[in-house]
Amino acid sequence: xxxxxxxxxxxxxxxxxxxIAATPVVAALTTACSTAPDEPDELLALANAAxxxxxxxxxxxxxxxxxADAANEIAxxxxxxxxxxxxxxxxxxxRDPEDPPSVxxxxxxxxxxxxxxxxxxxxxxxxxxxDRAAALVPAVPDRYRAGLxxxxxxxxxxxxxxxx
Length: 164
Hints:
By secondary structure, this protein is mainly alpha-helical. The protein has a single domain (44-163), classed as Ferritin (Up-down Bundle). It has six helices and no strands. The model is unreliable at 30-37 (pLDDT under 50).
């Protein structure tokens, strides 16, 4: 004769253990079969622009001595922005250490011929970076990421003041 507590149970102990064991498999299959495409990280464009701006600033610093101090500051800051963005991209989407970074190095750039044109090119790059970052802040769902992007926008605005 069965005990009263066992008779009331719909699922036996073995059935419960089978369900628990199958849960990771079901989760993996539903994730793998998802129809939603993997979208690129929204920070990738900002990181690429930061690396490109740093290369431009380095080229300007080498070509125009009168802009070297400001251009070197811009290059350092924009390199720091690129590194911070790369770290955040990798935190959210971990990659194999043997894979190349998701944000490749920017190709070397040529500085404009005159100091005024070089200064304008840097100002345009910084204003564009400031505006793109500021526009992205409300769309970023994560508060930490939104703070990072907002800080980069504010930094680019400050760098514009350094440039004069």
